[in-house]
Design goal:
By secondary structure, the protein is mainly α. The chain is built from 21 helices and 2 strands.
């Protein structure tokens, strides 16, 4: 299909989003932007959060993992499901009891201002890296299959995409995003189902035939029982649970939408509904991955990983209509994660770093001007980070995101766990140093443990690589740290906080 036709569909989709944004942002104010006036419908929030939780990474990367790891990613999904129960019954009651707008206000009430700002800082770092990695994946696909043929450079594509996201989140914030995310999740899941049906029809497969053929190729294997492997099932399940707790329950973007629901009960329904839907949706994404690899084998398609889905959908193997559906599904998967991140980071910086809610001297007009300036600044930061990921250009973005999450969300996990489950009094001024030191130490451990991966990425000399790999084998005896690195980082942070704390006075 002509790239100009595909571009026309993308442009039309943006016009639809801008129309929704205009309608929902009328009479909006700072409370609308930050927490949707605490009047969001829990069913809309739950459905929209499916798109936010999945993102373009799930749409492209999860199907791509099937070729090498079968359905092994579903181990992580089981962990996600467990993590959502912790959020629903431990974290949400805390947030509603304290009537929080920013969840990091808990850290100020529990420990002090340094811990509060440290938590907000790590959220901003974490969400910036995660959101822009997701954005890069989708923008890069649009660039390769549409914009390159039109002579548009990558830097212009990235800038225009961010400008459009900025336009429809500029005024309404959470109030707008609750509706746009619902719309975009509908398009994304619709695109997923249509692509599955199209591939099954192309190969003349029923559902039973599909799973039989995937099973014969070993694609349906879920559980990895090799205790030394990074994909060992207990590591993956535990890692998935703590990733959900940290990346959803301790993340202002995700919780901002939850606490915009009027009641705790409605918010808990939202989280548990989301957890159940994600179990089903991820099966569909893995099924799609199996179909893509089966179809690729039949038609001598050599693409793997993140490249296989866009290459088959847009490479002339399927109908033009499927190409359009793929593009709409892809950008629908991108924007719920990008728009929410941009809005949440603006909220966190204004409330947590600038103290906007405590500011009684500035007028509403002045506060609005500050909020818009911060929003624009973060959009520019997103733009720079997308260009950095273009320079790195990793072939499996989902691995990069999980790795980054292990480093950046660990301190948040340690801070909240220490605050909720202990009564100790923290020496608040030292909290930021503990939270900075822990990821550095974890990176050192991970660097040695995964020496082979790091030496390839850094293109180190053969002698240096051999020495590091030998050290890794000597210290770890073949044991590989996987996504449980987040747990280790949290434990290390917890231990450091314990060392700078004391028992409460009687």
């Amino acid at each position: 299909m002509s790239p100009y036709v595909l571009f026309a569909f993308v442009f039309g989709y943006f016009l639809l989003l801008l129309g929704v944004a205009y309608y929902t942002s009328r009479n909006s104010n700072n409370d609308s932007f930050f927490i949707g006036n605490r009047n969001s419908n829990w069913m809309l929030v739950a459905f929209g959060m499916v798109g936010t939780s999945l993102s373009g990474v799930t749409f492209v990367s999860v199907p791509g993992t099937v070729g090498a790891g079968g359905f092994g990613y579903y181990q992580v999904v089981i962990g996600y499901f467990i993590g959502y129960f912790v959020i629903a019954f431990i974290l949400l009651p805390l947030y509603y009891r304290m009537n929080l707008t920013s969840i990091y206000k808990f850290l100020e009430d529990r420990f002090g201002p340094v811990s509060y700002k440290t938590g907000a800082l790590f959220f901003i770092i974490s969400r910036t890296l995660g959101a822009t990695a997701r954005m890069f994946l989708v923008i890069n696909i649009l660039q390769i299959f549409i914009l390159d043929a039109m002579g548009v450079p990558f830097i212009a594509t990235a800038f225009i995409m961010l400008l459009l996201i900025l336009l429809y989140t500029f005024e309404g914030g959470v109030k707008t995003i609750v509706y746009t995310d619902t719309l975009q999740t509908t398009f994304m899941l619709g695109g997923l189902v249509v692509c599955i049906i199209a591939l099954m029809n192309k190969m003349d497969f029923s559902v039973a035939d599909t799973f039989s053929a995937m099973s014969a190729q070993g694609y349906t294997k879920i559980f990895n029982t090799d205790i030394n492997a990074s994909g060992f099932f207990l590591k993956q399940i535990l890692g998935g649970a703590f990733i959900t707790i940290a990346m959803t329950g301790l993340d202002q973007e995700m919780m901002q939408k939850n606490i915009s629901v009027k009641t705790l009960g409605g918010s808990q329904k939202n989280v548990l509904t989301l957890a159940t839907v994600l179990l089903i949706v991820n099966v569909l994404f893995l099924m799609l991955g199996g179909l893509l690899y089966l179809y690729g084998t039949q038609n001598n398609v050599t693409f793997k990983g993140d490249d296989i889905f866009p290459s088959i959908a847009l490479g002339g193997y399927l109908s033009s209509g499927i190409g359009v559906i793929f593009i709409i599904g892809l950008i629908s998967a991108l924007f719920p994660s990008a728009d929410g991140a941009l809005t949440a980071m603006t909220s966190s910086f204004c409330i947590d770093m600038l103290g906007m809610q405590k500011d009684t001297l500035s007028t509403d007009k002045e506060k609005r001007k500050t909020r818009l300036t911060v929003h624009l600044s973060f959009a520019l930061l997103f733009f720079v980070c997308v260009l950095v990921f273009k320079w790195i250009d990793d072939k499996s973005i989902i691995d990069v995101i999980l790795k980054l999450a292990g480093y950046t969300y660990g301190p948040l996990l340690g801070l909240f766990t220490f605050g909720i489950f202990t009564k100790r009094v923290l020496n608040d001024k030292w909290a930021i140093w503990v939270c900075l030191l822990s990821p550095v130490l974890i990176f050192g451990i991970d660097f040695i443990n995964n020496a082979e991966w790091f030496t390839k990425k850094l293109a180190l000399s053969e002698s240096t690589s051999a020495s590091l790999i030998h050290l890794s084998e000597t210290l770890f005896s073949g044991f590989k740290i996987g996504i449980e690195i987040l747990i280790l980082n949290g434990i290390l942070t917890f231990a450091g906080l314990w060392m700078i704390s004391k028992k409460p006075s009687l």
